[in-house]
Amino acid sequence: MLPTRTLGDLQVSALGLGCMGMSHAYGSADPDEARATLEAALAAGVTLYDTADMYGNGANEEFLAPFVQAHRDEIVLATKFGFVNDENARPVGLDGRPERVAGCVDASLRRLGIDVIDLYYLHRVDPQVPVEETVGAMAEQVAAGKVRTLGLSEASAEDIRRAAAVHPIAALQSEYSIFTRDVEDGPLQAAREVGAGLVPFSPLGRGLLTADRKAVAAALGGDDFRRSIPRWQGENLEANLRLVDRIDAIAADLTASGAGADGAPVTAGQVALAWVLAQGDDIVPIPGTARRKHLADNLGSAAVPLSDGQVAELTALSAAGERYPERTLHRR
Q1: GO molecular function of the protein, one example (predicted)?
Q2: Which of 21, 78, 186, 292 is 20 to 30 A from 28 in CA distance terms?
């Protein structure tokens, strides 16, 4: 079983599960396999499950609803609000007005079929609304018993401190991986100052850090949104895959030393996740997957022992290309 870590007053598994790709953004998914993946995660000790109202305009919450209801007392359910989507579930703006919060909470509760949300995030801070006002309205939902704890996603250090002055913040969710380190420049320190844990999304670089070139090639076809990401294009992609080869080489060294669980090979993805876990006991990554095979690989990272030298070598890697296209909303 997985070790546990804490996010505010919540005790959760050291690795959570990002559920967005089970119904949204990464091309077509197999719903039966996704449901089996949810059950396998629970059986392996995963207790933190992450979704948002913007994923498919609520479709992801609806997909998770039967699982959440069946295992309500065994899991910690996190969801988010703050984006405005068009009818095709594409983000077109942010709306953090306080008068909007109660309706968003009620809509998520209705879609999920539950009475309370364990961890409720502001998905992005609305630059047109003081964060204190939005968080104040979120705090009212805590007082009403509809939300247990509050979080922020991709927030600045200043916004984290301002929000925490209104109500305790249990978690900061931000993209964080060997290839994405922005959060280290202020937000992570601010989160620690206010007692919030860090919940990294895309800790595998949206699949790039797994060293699975077939999967990378597949992502660049069809309607997968990674096709638009500069990091996944042209010379940037080739440079990044060369860096991934270095991660794969560390995995091979660990395998040769017998570091894999039960003698199994250590994978590049496990090394990448082990690096994130090694950055602090207050960090709970939520790698996303809709397949049991990938889930098992991800969970194996908790047992991968990185040396100080390996951590330093991985820390020195720097990705080529931006993580989002120009002029697009920063989103997950």
Answers
A1: oxidoreductase activity
A2: 78
